[in-house]
Amino acid sequence: MEEACKPVLNTGLRGVVIADTRICDVDGANGRLIYRGYLVQDLAQGASFEEVTHLLLYEKLPSSDELEEMKRRFRENQGLPAELIAAFKTMPKDATPMEVLQAAVPMLAQHDEDVKQRDQSMEAALRMAHKLIPKFSAIVAAWHRIRNGQEPVEPLAELGHAANFLYMLTGEVPDEEVARFMDVALVCHAEHSFNASTFAAREVASTRAHMYAAVAAAVGSLSGDLHGGANMRVMEMLMKIGSTDKVHDYVNQEFDAGRVIFGLGHAVYDTDDPRAPILVEMIKRMGEKSGDTKWYDISTLLEKTGKEEFKKRKNKDIYVNVDFYSASLYYSMGIPIDLFTPVFAVARIAGWCTHVVEEQFAGAAPKPMLYRPESEYIGDYCGPDVCEFTGLDDR
Fold first, then answer.
1. E strand segments, 2-79
2. pLDDT of the residue at 54
3. What CA–CA distances, in Å, run from 142 to 8, 101, 166, 343?
4. Count of C-beta atoms within a 10 Å radius of residue 335
């Protein structure tokens, strides 16, 4: 009787609560994103990525001394092992950045004494997090330079994390305003509850695998087109449109063909993504700094036209998501399109590490519940019965 009452869900677990969390609340109905009790808008306005990392890992915003300690850990751990750089130089120059990033994570594990000693304490997990979070930016930057025939650039002690990422990527110290925009973008992408990549990390963590194994799984999940590739598609779409006078025709052409406008619509929010308004103003400012607001003009008109046309055709609203505006922000900073998803990972690594710690150590003892969903077997060649085995000569 108990077996017969088990629910069968073929919905990708949408709407199914699988765990509780103290880390993040995505309030889709009201368009709110909350990290440890704080609205993302407030954090984006007043906090750095280092502060938000402390908030996520330690459940509170840091004091001045704690922030200095966090910054010190970022500086000390941002460098990469020489062996990893040497390995990058053996990789095909056309290897995708996400595959290189995923490959780098278990390679880093080989250099971590906590992994070698099989230390499964919470303290060891936090030490691993402190090593991994700053290294993600160094990996992305180093690979981009190596694939272009350049040597990696060492971070500068006087720069913050976001500024150092841009410096390691380009070899030039960024404008302070641009560095702040990068910092805000990292804050906005640092965490988003149980999305696909975070779920992947937590599922692996539930086996008591170490931090690197769980994070490698998260990177693999993010590399999929349905998860991390949306901002790339948005930028390609904007480049295809090319000018504001082509926006209306493009929208009608795509809707007539039954296609979507990338960046409009979200699996969770029933309102505009609360991060989108934060980013759009930065895109406008980037355009003003360069003397060309083209991407801001196309994007804002595309959002307005797409929403109006969707409402006219479907008699319901559609909302903008964070990818719609992060794309042109990154592009305005000179970041190549195929690095957009890795940059997402440079931010989200803070959330992934936090979820691994929570999965393994929430509560009184480190006893994660091993994830073990069930499936409904719907038969095979022999229908509901087992097949009769036939020897090779008689098949």
1. 24-27, 32-35, 38-39
2. 98
3. 46, 10, 11, 13
4. 22
**Same structural domain for residues 117 and 241?**
no
Cα–Cα–Cα angle for 362, 129, 170, nearest 5°? 145
Residue range of the domain that includes 300: 230-331
Could you tell me if 158 and 238 lie in one domain? no
What is the model's pTM? 0.93
- Please tell me the total count of domains within the chain: 2
Please report the pLDDT score of residue 383 as a whole number: 67
Residue in the block written with tokens 């994070």: 215
- List active site positions: 227, 266, 323
Residues 6+ apart with CB under 8 A from 264: 303, 306, 307, 310, 318, 319, 320, 321, 324
pLDDT of residue 251: 98
Q: What's the pLDDT score for residue 230?
A: 87
Same-domain check for residues 104 and 186: yes
173 and 194 inside one domain: yes
Instruction: Take residue 341 and report the two structure tokens written for it.
Output: 């998803």
Residue 66's Cβ-count burial label (10 Å; 0-12, 13-18, 19+) is middle
- Regarding whether 191 and 61 lie in a shared domain, the answer is yes
176: left (phi over 0), alpha (psi -120 to 50) or beta: alpha
DSSP 175: P
Residues 50 and 189 in one domain: yes
**Which residues have CB under 8 Å from 130's CB, separation 6+?**
73, 77
Rounded Cα gap, residues 191 and 180, in angstroms? 18
Contact 36, 23 (CB under 8 A): yes
CA atoms of 128 and 131, how far apart (whole Å) = 5
For the chain, how big is the Rg over CA atoms in Å?
23
| Mean pLDDT per 10-residue segment, the chain (395 residues) | 53 80 94 97 98 98 98 95 97 96 97 95 97 98 98 96 97 97 98 95 96 98 88 95 97 96 90 95 94 96 97 95 93 95 98 97 69 78 76 92
* Total residue length of the chain: 395
